[in-house]
Amino acid sequence: MRRIFLLMLLWCSGYVSYAQYDIGAMNYGLVASKNFGEEKEFGLGLRIEYAFNCSTTFMAEYNRSLAITSNKENQEYEGYNEFALGVNLILFNWYPTTITAGIGYVGNDANDFEFFEDDAFLSLQTGGMIHGAQIKIRALHQLSDPIHIFGELNVKSLGSRYHTFLIGFSYDFYN
Questions:
Q1: Is the alpha carbon torsion for 4, 6, 9, 10 positive or negative?
Q2: What does residue 73 show for φ and ψ, rounded to 5 degrees?
Q3: Integer angstrom CA distances of residue 92 from 54, 98, 109, 156, 168
C-alpha cells in the first residue's frame, strides 16, 4: 500500500508540475533585494528569463547594491554591481503558485571582498571581479496571465555577506 501511495504521489506531482511559463516565453522582471550581510544595504535589479520548456527556465540578472545611509554616515560606500546566469527547474506546482530551485554563476565587483573572503566557500577573483556560484529557491505566483510576482532566496558561495532575499515581478512576452 505504501508503494502504491508513493507511486501515485510521484505520478501526480509529475503530472501537475509542468508549467511555470509557456514554452518559448521571454520574461522581463524588476526586483528589490535585501542583503543578509549588511544591515543598511539593499539592491535593485533587472532580470530576463527564457522558458526553454515547461519546467526549465534560463535566467540572466543584473543587481545593483546600494546603501541606506544619511549624508553623514559612510559617504565612501559606492555599492557594487552583480551579474548572474542560471537555470531554474520546477520543484512543485500548485497553480497559480510554483516553487522553483536553481543553480548558476554569480559575479560582482565589490571592493570589500578581502574582508569577507574567509567566509567564502567557492570564489575566484580576477581583476576587479569576484566569481562564484549561487543556489536559489523561488516562489512564483501568477497574478494574471502575463504578470507574476515572486520571492526568492539566493545563497552564494561568496559568503554570507552576499546572500540575498529578493521580491519582484515579471512580465511574460509570448512567442
A1: negative
A2: -90, 135
A3: 13, 6, 34, 23, 20
Query: Cell numbers 521571454 label which residue?
Result: 26
Q: What is the pLDDT of residue 104?
A: 95
pLDDT in tens, 47-99: 999 988 888 999 999 999 887 765 555 566 678 899 999 999 999 888 889 99
Please give the CATH number for the structural domain made up of 2-173.
Answer: 2.40.160.20
Domain residue ranges in the chain: 2-173
CB 54 within 8 A of CB 23: yes
Q: What is the residue whose three cell numbers read 540572466?
A: 60
**Reported pTM:** 0.77
More confident residue, 18 or 145: 145
Rounded to whole angstroms, the Cα distance separating 171 from 14 reads 26
